[in-house]
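STRUCTURE:
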């Protein structure tokens, strides 16, 4: 496993590889957990070369958000990755990615302004910009991303389509704790009491899925039941929406491909999750 801190070294190591080998890429912000590691395993099984990036991208955090507190442990992350079949780890710093005078941004309009984008203005501009930059450095055929960040995948797929890029995103299933909480680096912020209450997200989603299976398709009823479950655990709702799984447009009634998407604060920690309501 080679570890590179600079764009130049990474480019040199990968020079010509995209022509001979299928490069698979897992972009991360570190603080690796089993969710990330499942992406790395999947990447290895479907690619000839596995590249992982670890970079906490400052431009996807708002001014009041947790950039300064975001968990960072590069050495531990690298040790973990040594147990997997990783060929290259790219760990740039801010000077590499955003040198002085940097002023170019990628904006996927519309999709970036709804759901998480409505509460986190500029978030998806930062995500699209850094992912495009990383893609240009790594040149992957496949990019492996977890469906917990479902909107992120939809935004990036639109960017790929609109900019005629050749990378395909492989959507990977959400990895959950035994009690159903979606794995996330931000779970480490939760106190023991909050950690217990955080299971209300998956309870609300599963309840909605069960109601749909029983024939309840009215979005407003499903959303209000989900709200009740979240409020019973003292969760503060950012949003709960039922959307079309491809366009993310809100739907008054559940139909094939609909998803329930939610963002909820448990204490000061903002958690997201989602589920397909009808295949
Ligand atoms: O999902 C993440 O961890 C980040 O948004 C990503 C894709 C690595 C970009 O910084």
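SEQUENCE:
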């Amino acid at each position: 496993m080679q570890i590179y801190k600079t764009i130049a070294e990474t480019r040199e190591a990968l020079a010509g590889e995209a022509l001979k080998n299928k490069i698979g890429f897992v972009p991360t912000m570190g603080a690796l957990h089993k969710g990330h590691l499942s992406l790395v395993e999947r990447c290895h099984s479907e690619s000839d070369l596995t590249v992982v990036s670890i970079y906490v991208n400052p431009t996807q955090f708002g001014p009041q958000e947790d950039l300064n507190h975001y968990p960072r442990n590069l050495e531990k992350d690298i040790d973990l990755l040594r147990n997997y079949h990783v060929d290259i780890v790219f760990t740039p710093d801010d000077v590499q990615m955003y040198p002085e005078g940097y002023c170019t941004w990628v904006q996927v309009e519309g999709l970036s302004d709804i759901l998480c984008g409505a509460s986190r203005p500029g978030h998806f501009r930062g995500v699209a910009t850094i992912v495009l930059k990383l893609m240009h450095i790594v040149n992957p055929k496949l990019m492996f991303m977890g469906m917990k960040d479902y909107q992120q995948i939809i935004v990036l797929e639109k960017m790929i389509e609109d900019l005629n890029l050749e990378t395909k995103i492989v959507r990977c299933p959400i990895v959950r704790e035994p009690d159903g909480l979606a794995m996330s680096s931000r779970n480490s912020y939760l106190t023991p009491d909050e950690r217990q209450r955080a299971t209300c997200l998956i309870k609300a989603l599963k309840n909605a899925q069960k109601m749909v299976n029983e024939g309840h398709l009215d979005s407003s009823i499903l959303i209000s039941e989900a709200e009740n479950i979240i409020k019973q655990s003292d969760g503060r709702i950012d949003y709960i929406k039922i959307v079309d799984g491809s366009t993310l447009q809100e739907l008054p009634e559940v139909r094939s491909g609909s998803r329930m998407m939610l963002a909820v604060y448990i204490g000061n920690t903002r958690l997201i999750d989602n589920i397909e309501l009808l295949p």
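REMARK: The radius of gyration is 19 Å.
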